[in-house]
Design a protein that fits this description.
It is built from seven helices and 13 strands. By secondary structure, the protein is of the alpha+beta class. The strands form two sheets. Strands 3, 4, 5, 6, 7, 10 and 11 form a seven-stranded antiparallel sheet that branches. The protein has a six-stranded antiparallel sheet with strand order 1-2-13-12-8-9. The chain is globular and about 55 Å long.
Length: about 270
């Protein structure tokens, strides 16, 4: 099914104009009975949540987290503080739900939000768990977020190579989640808003089936957000669809006030 793209134009105090175009989709996949993934793609917040725990626990955890974040978007400004307030409420919801019966119930949460800082705009990424944010900038795809997982800790400690990690028996074990046992704040990173940037926000159902090279390949073949989402979702299902698959693509077009042309001066990721 072709994904519908949404668009928002933002005029900055500097005189620059930023146009964001995005699309998102989720699929149960080929092997799971229910979909424990949820997503929110409403300006200025674009996030994916991948639930876990019990028959219905993961679905409850991801949905309640997204509902609380939807309320934050509807209420106005999205900041790290409003996100963390929403997550505290989500943890209360998850804990109180009658179908939440085990301590393993929780959800990942990852994504980006767009925010104004003085005369300019910035992106802020947020992450809890092993869902991921990628950024394609100047032809180079990089993973913005760092997985909160046992395997990532082993890689960081030099005890495991990225190649060995792919088939590791603990590949699904995460070390942080939004859930019954904790309400830790996400990790944040801040980025410039640059013309031509493309963000991919996804659950591990995508990265289990597509390598980073594959993600970049489908971005290259599909210049619009909707088409890129369609292509990556279809490829993940064709490659096995072993898990629920969720993906959001956000495209950035920035026009300079000075020349009416795209602003492409690179600004380093902080």
């Amino acid at each position: 099914m072709s994904q519908v793209s949404h668009e928002r134009e933002v005029a900055l105090a500097s005189g620059d104009t930023v146009v964001l175009t995005w699309a998102g989709a989720t699929d149960t996949g080929r092997r799971r009975e229910n979909n424990q993934d949820s997503l929110l793609a409403e300006f200025p917040l674009f996030v994916v949540a991948d639930g876990m725990g019990g028959h219905a626990g993961g679905e409850i955890a991801s949905q309640r987290t997204i509902v609380r974040l939807e309320e934050a978007v509807a209420a106005g400004e999205i900041t790290t503080e409003t996100i963390e307030t929403a997550l505290v409420s989500a943890v209360h919801d998850i804990t109180a739900h009658p179908d939440t019966t085990d301590e393993g119930t929780g959800t990942t949460l990852t994504g980006v939000f767009f925010t104004l800082v003085g005369d300019d705009a910035r992106w802020v990424s947020l992450n809890i768990g092993d869902s991921r944010v990628y950024l394609l900038r100047d032809g180079v795809l990089s993973q913005v977020t760092t997985d909160h997982s046992v395997v990532q800790e082993l890689i960081t400690a030099g005890r495991l190579s990225p190649e060995e990690a792919e088939g590791h028996p603990y590949s699904n074990v995460i070390t942080r989640a939004v859930g019954v046992s904790e309400a830790l704040p996400p990790d944040y990173r801040e980025f410039s808003v640059q013309d031509g940037d493309r963000f991919v926000i996804c659950s591990d159902g995508l990265t289990k089936e597509l390598t980073d090279y594959g993600i970049q390949h489908f971005l290259g073949l599909n210049p619009t957000a909707g088409a890129a989402v369609d292509a990556m979702l279809a490829a993940a299902l064709e490659n096995g669809g072993r898990d629920n698959v969720t993906v959001i693509v956000v495209d950035v077009h920035r026009t300079s006030a000075d020349e009416g042309s795209s602003s492409t001066a690179p600004i380093a990721v902080e």
